[in-house]
Amino acid sequence: MKGPHRTARLAAGFFCCALLMWLAGCAQLVPQTIALRTGWPQGVPQHVELADVPFFPQDEYQCGPAALATALVYTGVRVEPAALVSQVYLPSRQGSLQVEMLATPRRWGRVSYLLSPHYPDMLREVAAGNPVVVLQDVGLMSPMIPQWHYAVVNGFDYPSGTLFLRSGTKRRQEMPFTAFEREWMQSGYWAMVVTPPDRIPVTATEEGWVAAVLAMARSGDGEAATKAYAAALQRWPDNLPAAIGLANQHHARGALADAVAVLRKAQQRHPQSVIVTNNLAQTLSDQGLHAEALAQIEKASDPQSPFAGEVRATRQLILERMAQRKAGNR
Questions:
Q1: Residues 255 and 129 in one domain
Q2: Residue 34 domain-assigned?
Q3: Given this model, what pLDDT does residue 2 score?
Q4: What's the rounded Cα separation, in Å, for the pair 16 and 260?
Q5: d(CA 7, CA 15)
Q6: What are phi and psi of 39, to 5 degrees?
Q7: Does residue 33 form part of some domain?
Q8: Residue 222 — pLDDT band, cuts 50, 70, 90?
Q9: Statement to judge: residues 234 and 280 lie in one domain
Q10: pLDDT in tens, 252-282
Q11: Among candidate residues 148, 176, 195, the one where a domain is terminated
Q12: Do 163 and 118 share a structural domain?
């Protein structure tokens, strides 16, 4: 009797070791899914599905335009995937690069925000009503030949461990959390959201959002940039780049009083900022308030400042305008 019991104990010990090794292997394969089992994001419901997210079945190799159209239309932009092909699709690669995916929504007055590579951030965005564009390698059966694919996550169900996606030709693709992570992790967990300029993603950081807005502002959509900078200042009132950006947008459209108002508030919060003082002096002079402008620019006179050249140029402009006014009054 002694032998069989000992064999059973050894077998049980081997089974436990095998189970632990299997669990450790799973954790290595899908570490973020494993973490969700014991650390579901606080405040995120266990079931969400954004049923009104549109669906565009993709043409061959054109998952990028289809995914972007899905995200853009959801934010109110009227566009079809065909209109995005020339902006996103690269025939030589038979696909779309991430840089094009991020750049294209900016041309439509929307902000592209790159998420941090974490499952909880993706889930938080979906729960907040923001479908998430993700990049997957769906060719894992042939690991030497990646098959990159863009899809849109529009929901999840934690009890069943299922994600819902708009993907390829499937309006409602259901994927286990684990299977999705295995494909998603190959891209470095790449994910982005597309939002209207006045809607900040729930997981956005101050630095990340302002950088995304600066990138959008370069596209030339002044109205969208104005809204995005204003949204940034509403959430982060002390953000200096957002204040300067908003004032610049007001100035560019001739709203000098609005620009001055923004710059005065910024100066109160950042009295040592040479850029704010210089821009305030410039704008005051543009309003014809040359004496006040000169008093402001004198505050910024510091030969050691990296902006000393700009300050000298602004001061010279103010003095020339004052001389012209004086000559005109004779």
A1: no
A2: no
A3: 43
A4: 71
A5: 12
A6: -140, 60
A7: no
A8: very high
A9: yes
A10: 999 999 999 999 999 999 999 999 999 999 9
A11: 195
A12: yes
Rounded to an integer, what is the distance from CA 55 to the centroid of its chain?
Answer: 22
β-pair partners for 134 = 151, 191
Pairing between β-strand 162-167 and β-strand 148-157 as defined by DSSP bridges: antiparallel
DSSP-assigned letter for residue 273: -
Beta-sheet strands, E only, within 138-226: 148-157, 162-167, 170-176, 191-195
C-beta separation of 176 from 161 below 8 A = yes
Q: Decide: helix, strand or coil at residue 155.
A: strand
Three-class SS state of 238: coil
Q: Helix 2-29 and helix 177-184: axis angle, to 10°?
A: 50
**First CA to last CA distance, the chain:** 122
**How many beta carbons lie within 10 A of that of residue 157, not counting itself?**
15
Type and span of the H or E element at 111: strand 111-114
Answering whether pTM is above 0.90, one says no
> What is the count of structural domains for the chain?
2
Q: How far apart are CA 98 and CA 126, in angstroms?
A: 20
The residue with tokens 């708009």 is 166
In this structure, is residue 23 part of a structural domain?
no
CB 239 within 8 A of CB 266: no
Task: Tell me what pLDDT residue 18 has.
Answer: 32
Q: Which domain holds residue 259?
A: 206-328
CA 276 from centroid of its chain's CA atoms? 26
Q: What is the CATH number of the domain that holds 248?
A: 1.25.40.10
Residue 249 buriedness (CB in 10 A; 0-12 / 13-18 / 19+) = buried
Whether residue 159 is found in the same domain as residue 237:
no
Token code pair at residue 50:
């954004």
Q: Does a structural domain hold residue 36?
A: no
Looking up tokens 């289809």 gives: 66
